[in-house]
Amino acid sequence: MCNVKKIQFQLKLFRSIPEIDSFFLENLTDVYILSCEEKSGIYKIKELDEMDIQQRQKGGQPGQTQAEQPGIESKMDPRPLQPLDYKGSEKLTDRVALITGGDSGIGRAVAIAYAREGAHLAINYLKDEQSDADETKKLIEQEGVKCLLIPGDVSKEETCKELVEKTVEHFGRLNILINNSAVQYPTSNLEDISFEQWDKTFKTNMYSVFHMTKFALRHLKVGGAIINTTSVNPYKGNPQLIDYTSTKGAIVGFTRSMAANLADRGIRVNMVAPGPIWTPLIPSTFDEEKVEEFGTDTLMGRPGQPSELVGPYVLLGSDDGSYMTGQCIHVNGGQIMSS
After folding, report:
1. Class of the domain covering 73-331
2. 33, containing H or E segment
3. Which residue in the list 32, 114, 125, 244 is annotated as catalytic?
């Protein structure tokens, strides 16, 4: 007997997990992780809630790797939890948001939540991630809003300009910019970081924020919002992600400076600092042992899910955050940080 609201299931994948007895059910576009109880051969299915997440996962994820970053979400096992049960309340009706790295992970989760709040989305991604982008587009459009897919490498200035121009050309406006794209190359010693790696990391993670913001400012008006994805790492340091952490620290300084610079223009600039979140970037940049340990050093003893980050992005992009600028919201499983 099913107790799942407004969800039509098509069973594609079945997996039982010892002692938890969970199912992975998916329809054509969505993946739902459900907890089940066996009683006389009948499975009672219920929607996954926050408590289920805590009970289901205690510890890290199964060891796995992907050949190239930023990775493909559909190849992850288990797949990240997306906010499929998020209920919008028209906080972003008819606003247009452009999200870099919006095809999977945190970007996809935010896009789904924004769609459920009534926003139209422009999603940037790399061409190799087309399958993830197509799935994200379906998830967005089924909410009755519009979605524009724009492939391109944001490490290049001309791509950043093109993203903004195509968004405005398609929708006629731009209200929210979310700078979310990033790469990372775990390296144990500074001596082993080549200039090419350092340069690539800064161009993708930091230069893109500069270029995207600069081009977006031609179109953002009073009430506009810029949200930058930084990280827990610049607040505590990371010995294996020196270049990545440096870019995220630069984003902190840039965000606060731009908040001061744009206050008179009525444009808010804020940031979200995720902790260890289960996204495609993890198996595509760490080895199996690191993946298994990922997130287990937090107070909650597990990595976070993309679905657990959407609240701050909605807050900062909507009128609910109208008195917030230059701020950082930490979502990191209990790692205590000064903001």
Report:
1. alpha beta
2. strand 31-39
3. 244
Q: Please tell me what DSSP assigns to residue 284.
A: T
Residue among 145, 171, 242, 233 at smallest CA distance from 201 = 242
Q: From the CB of residue 6, how many other CB atoms can be counted at a distance below 10 Å?
A: 5
Q: Is 303 exposed, middle or buried (0-12, 13-18, 19+ CB in 10 A)?
A: buried
Sign of the four-CA dihedral 121, 278, 206, 232: positive
Does the annotation mark 43 as catalytic?
no
Q: What is the pLDDT of residues 133-167, one digit of tens each?
A: 999 999 999 999 999 999 999 999 999 999 999 99
Q: For 38-96, how does the pLDDT look when each residue is reduced to its tens digit (9 = 90+)?
A: 333 333 334 444 445 554 455 677 777 777 777 777 777 777 777 778 899 999 999 99
* Cβ count near 275 (within 10 Å): 23
Backbone angles phi, psi at 140, to 5 degrees: -75, -50
Q: For the chain, give the number of residues.
A: 339
CB 86 within 8 A of CB 116: yes
- Give the tokens for residue 243: 């270049």
Question: Where do we find the tokens 């190359």?
Answer: 185
Domain boundaries, the chain: 2-56, 73-331
**CA 266 to chain CA centroid, nearest Å:** 26
Find out whether 182 and 101 touch, Cβ atoms under 8 Å: yes
Q: How far is CA 330 from CA 143, 228, 271, 272, 308, in A?
A: 28, 12, 9, 6, 12
